[in-house]
Amino acid sequence: MERRKFIQKSGMGILGMAALGLNGCSDLMSEEAALQLGTAPLPAQMPFKISLAQWSLNNSLWAGKLDNLDFAQYTKETFQIDAVEYVNQFFIDKAKDTAYLSQMKQRAADHGVKNLLIMIDMEGNLASLDESARLQAVDNHYKWIDAAKFLDCHTIRVNAIGKGERNAVANAMVDSLGKLSEYGAKEEINVVVENHGGYSSDAAWLSGVIEQVNNPFCGTLPDFGNFLMNLFPRQEYDPLKGLKELMPYAKGVSAKSHDFNSAGENSHADFEAMIKIVQDFGYKGYIGIEYEGYKLSEEAGIKATKDLLIRSAINT
Fold it and tell me: What is the pLDDT of residues 288-298, one digit of tens each?
């Protein structure tokens, strides 16, 4: 399922914001104030590192204002962030194009930017109960493990999408993840699942799947803001409980942000509480900024998120 449509179905788009009453929020951070934030390098005492998820700039990328090949340079020069997380949608036909991947790799290296992972969408449903479709989806993902290896990434992120009875969908996902993780292990590439709507936003369900796969190259990408399991009727997993359940398997963390009040606090997630949980688990890897707000521009929203991550780390 296309990522934009998936977000809308998960209630994380404009419809979801309206349901939460966020469109009518007052006391929002101004564009001017946000643009002044997050421009300095990370403080030396930071307990974790910060990366930028490419989806934060999806509007610019779709509109052609930013090219995928320029993403790493733009990230370093605009935000002083030296690690990136790609989304395969922006180079969907390039997984086997080594000439193109070489350009991505070289441009990142030229600007001192580390390639971390590729988020994989639009390659079929790995938890489908239609075995033929599911196995085709598995096969579709292999090339992205190869692409990640070529780019010196350490991980690909996949989605646990499937319709049907809870346990049946879990079993299907276990089989798919098992195959992909076995392949990933040969290349030393992690295969991780993000809480990303549906069953996957049920942290108990997802952690159970990862436990059954039982492969050191299989894990989670806990996302601060993706615990909405269903919009109609609304069902949301407790975000703090969910984060605690997913962190034991985390090979990355995604700091989903939306709108900000004038004090710089995020409208959807308690970042300070989330960061405390992350730190309590001893996590010292990268936390990826994934801005999905509508009130600030992409640049301003990313800067506000970076600033909030730094303040949350210092305060916990």
Answer: 999 999 999 99
Beta bridge partners of 192: 157, 219
- Confirm if 196 and 10 have CB atoms less than 8 A apart: yes
Sign, CA dihedral 32-269-161-215, equals: positive
Asked if pLDDT for residue 3 goes beyond 70, the answer is no
Question: What type of residue sits at position 64?
Answer: G
Q: Give the whole-angstrom CA distance, residue 224 versus residue 275.
A: 9
Residue 310's H or E segment, with its range, is helix 298-315
- Sign of the dihedral defined by the CA atoms of residues 25, 30, 35, 37, in that order: negative
- For residues 312 and 272, is the Cβ–Cβ distance under 8 A? yes
d(CA 248, CA 281): 7
Which residue has 């085709």 as its token pair? 136
Structure tokens at 92: 């969907």
